[in-house]
Amino acid sequence: MHELSLAIPIGEYVLQESQGRNVEEIVLKVGRLSGIVPEALDLALQVVLQASCAEKACITYEWQDGEGQCRFCHTRFSMKDVLDVCPDCGQMGAKILAGTQIRLIGLRFAPRLDTSPEETHTTQMTINNS
Predict the structure, then answer these.
(1) What is the pLDDT of residues 57-87, one digit of tens each?
(2) 3-state secondary structure the chain
(3) pTM of the complete model
(4) Quick one: average pLDDT of 21-48?
(5) How many CA atoms are closer than 13 Å to the CA of 34, on its beta-carbon side?
(6) How far apart are CA 40 and CA 77, in angstroms?
């Protein structure tokens, strides 16, 4: 379960960025070739964020296709799985160029008690999961 090793730095970053504000949503952009199992990452984040200002945060995933290059005909193509075959020559074993990362791209905070509107925070944290 490598998701726990990913959840720890994500959780630390969320808590650092929140500065004690209650976090309602955590938005992650995940490459389809990262091998991430969202249910496992949800569980790992629940453990990491337990008893914190982000323990009730909803996790939202935005999936990003990967990109590969055929080792035989050098065609570059979009990939949804590491086993995808080259659309031009039908060979497997493409060199993966992109799609293995997970990025924290946004946080939404609960409105404060002083009736200020909810606040959305765009952020950027990248973990390369290759």
Answers:
(1) 999 999 999 999 999 999 999 999 999 999 9
(2) CCHHHHHHHHHHHHHHHHCCCCEEEEEEEEECCCCCCHHHHHHHHHHHHCCCCCCCCEEEEEEECEEEECCCCCCEEEECCCCCCCCCCCCCCCEEEECCEEEEEEEEECCCCCCCCCEEEEEEEEEECC
(3) 0.81
(4) 94
(5) 26
(6) 29
